[in-house]
Amino acid sequence: MLFKIPERLKMFSFYNVISYFTSIDIRHPEELSLLRKSRDSTKKKKKKLDDQYEDETLELEGPLITPGSGNVYSSPGLYSKTMTPTYDSHDGSPLSPTSAWFGDSALSEGNPGILAVSQPITSPEILAKMYKPQSLLDKAKINQGWLDSSRSLMEQEVKENEALLLRFKYYSFFDLNPKYDAIRINQLYEQSKWAILLEEIECTEEEMMMFAALQYHVNKLSIMSSENHLNNSDKEVDEVDAALSDLEITLEGGKTSTILVRTENLLLYRPKKLTLKGYKQYWCTFKDTSISCFKSKEESNGTPAHQMNLRGCEVTPDVNISGQKFNIKLLIPVAEGMNEIWLRCDNEKQYAHWMAACRLASKGKTMADSSYNLEVQNILSFLKMQHLNPDPQIITEQITTDINPECLVSPRYLKKYKNKQITARILEAHQNVAQMSLIEAKMRFIQAWQSLPEFGITHFIARFQGGKKEELIGIAYNRLIRMDASTSDAIKTWRFSNMKQWNVNWEIKMVTVEFADDVRVSFICTEVDCKVVHEFIGGYIFLSTRAKDQNESLDEEMFYKLTSGWV
């Protein structure tokens, strides 16, 4: 039987995203893409239970919004109005709000500001049944569903009634401004919230309580005064904008002419070295992008016992506020792989300065960069939000039925503590954020998400040339990472700043990337089309060319040139 395919199914996937965001005046649509929803493979053997679960889910969700549907439905419950509360009929996971845009949406005709409003999760039962990746390999399999931006939906066998997700694909959020980006900020808040609740990204117990407190705060403000926050006065937005500008870390910070040097006693540890010794104290000097370690301050004018150039290294925090643990884990590229070094700081202030310096050095920047002080303040702010300052009287008064920890905390911690204990800890953490406005709380949530060690890395299962087993290739906004599939340890890192070119052998589906110093990396993606990986690399290169002084019009031709793979 013949039927007419909607015109949008004939358009390029990327053009669909651009046209929708242009219609509701959202900036930087190039950061998003369409994703097919992943399925929990374990449910294939449970068809009867799955069908029963589907019926239960449909009772809560209402009709799905899919390409070609004529109306947009709004149903209360699991997902926020911001995200258009609809659920996947197979596994109950929330569908993106903007997956509904294919139809003649009321959003495109009425007030798109509804996409800037957030509502709390109110159905812990469905949340408990939603698909959660159990390993890094599971997380990698989620990325099999990214659509090809340079092919039409019809070419990719997207059916008229198939639900798609609209997600931030590239973790490089340019010029995020509360004055202009209320919808964009809220979409990021929702995506980061679900990533944490579904354990798609790891966080510590203290960080989880901080995220729960911020989520609880956003929920309260959204329910109490959603209309007021939808129509914020220019004065309020200006105040929030001014406050958040202090936290902004620009991609291209300026430099001062002063050469900054940091010198302090630090404890240093080499975990993979064959020794029973633990941390050893050194007098450390941080200059430019290198750390020199001396046995004592008096010997600092001589030859260092150890010297590390951090350019291109991996920097990972290892912090426990209550335990007063402030560690910095460094994976430094060397000829044979990665050299692992741990630095232990005495306190938050010392940690913030050294962590900021390490992060900048990994990008080839120094403490003279204008973003250094902003990075320090951002780290201190992140740590401060994790402090617990219990006021028993306030907490006792606030423990009411308006807080449901099952909707605020990931399953891992729900299994570890009783609900009453979690509620008390959330309220303790809430005291650190209680004075924030709605937009500031969302921004803080996003910034805290960006501070997590695993943030911004998209994983794919790969087999490297010369290798015998499956490994992982991680793609971030500035680097490629070869990773151990079982431990998630970084084996080797390559920076895009050192990349000369990349290409794909379409016949054997092999991606080859060439770097400076005759370094050549080749791999085959075993469970995803190599075009997806090619597009990620090209997409990040394209995003790196953006600058604030440029015209905001999108260079679609350049995007396709870098991502399509066309000759």
From TrEMBL:
CDD domains: FERM_B-lobe, PH_fermitin. Keywords: Cell adhesion. One of its GO terms (molecular function) is integrin binding. Residues 260-363 form the PH domain. The keyword Transport does not apply. GO terms for biological process: cell-matrix adhesion; integrin-mediated signaling pathway. It comes from the Eukaryota. The keyword Glycoprotein does not apply. InterPro entries: Band_41_domain (IPR019749), FERM_2 (IPR035963), FERM_central (IPR019748), Kindlin/fermitin (IPR037843), PH-like_dom_sf (IPR011993), PH_domain (IPR001849), PH_Kindlin/fermitin (IPR037837). Pfam families: FERM_M. One of its GO terms (cellular component) is focal adhesion. PANTHER family: FERMITIN 2-RELATED (PTHR16160), FERMITIN FAMILY HOMOLOG 2 (PTHR16160:SF11). Belongs to the kindlin family. This is FERM domain containing kindlin 2. It comes from Laticauda laticaudata.
